[in-house]
Design a protein that fits this description.
about 200 residues, alpha/beta, five-stranded parallel β-sheet, 8 helices, about 15% strand
Length: about 200
């Protein structure tokens, strides 16, 4: 496998963390745009929220059950994100692509599954971007966004389990030697983007 293309951009793997409303989707897109302009490599984007919404939209029995959980802001059972992540990697990853993941590692089993997969695929040097945002600012941003699953009760439920179950996963990943970059998500979009590029040594 070739380690470098002529433009010198090595494959990079980035796992995004942050509460609802922290701007993960926007920052993922901006990072992907930078990688596309600087590298000939493809990009595998694993967006768990979108994958779950796609499942709901399918109208299947599994989609109906998923909607009953996601619709009230609860966390999916770990088997589902593990399955969807594994399915995407097995079917798409050739070893050459950049990987950007958002909405994963939301519980201990998910986190171990992701980390074990990265070790298996030779990407244990992945970066973690943790966008920090206060609960008040998260609620404010989500209410403005106005997505159908962004009722105030659902927002508060998601923020509650994010603090109780998701944030501890950062410590677990640190204990495994993974690199975590803490970035202030309350800043303007371009400032956050610049901080991410700097953390990833892409500035």
């Amino acid at each position: 496998m070739t380690d470098n293309f002529s433009n010198g951009v090595n494959p990079i793997t980035v796992l995004f963390f942050g509460p609802q409303g922290a701007g993960k989707g926007t920052q993922v897109k901006l990072l992907a745009d930078v990688l596309k302009t600087r590298s000939e490599r493809g990009i595998i984007h694993i967006d768990m929220g979108q994958l779950l919404r796609n499942m709901i939209a399918s109208g299947s029995y599994t989609g109906t059950l998923t909607n009953e959980i996601v619709g009230v802001g609860k966390r999916m059972p770990d088997f589902m994100p593990i399955y969807l992540t594994t399915d995407a990697l097995v079917k798409q990853f050739t070893g050459e692509e950049h990987i950007i993941a958002d909405g994963l590692a939301r519980g201990p089993d998910q986190t171990r599954g992701w980390d074990d997969a990265m070790v298996f695929y030779g990407r244990s040097d992945f970066h973690i971007i943790s966008l920090e945002l206060s609960e008040e600012e998260s609620i404010k941003r989500l209410v403005i966004r106005g997505r159908s699953d962004d009722t105030e009760d659902a927002i508060k439920q998601r923020l509650s389990w994010h603090k109780a179950e998701v944030e501890p996963q950062l410590e677990f990943l640190k204990s495994r030697g993974r690199t975590v970059h803490h970035i202030d998500g309350a800043l303007d979009i371009q400032t956050v983007h610049a901080a991410i590029l700097s953390a990833l040594k892409l500035a």
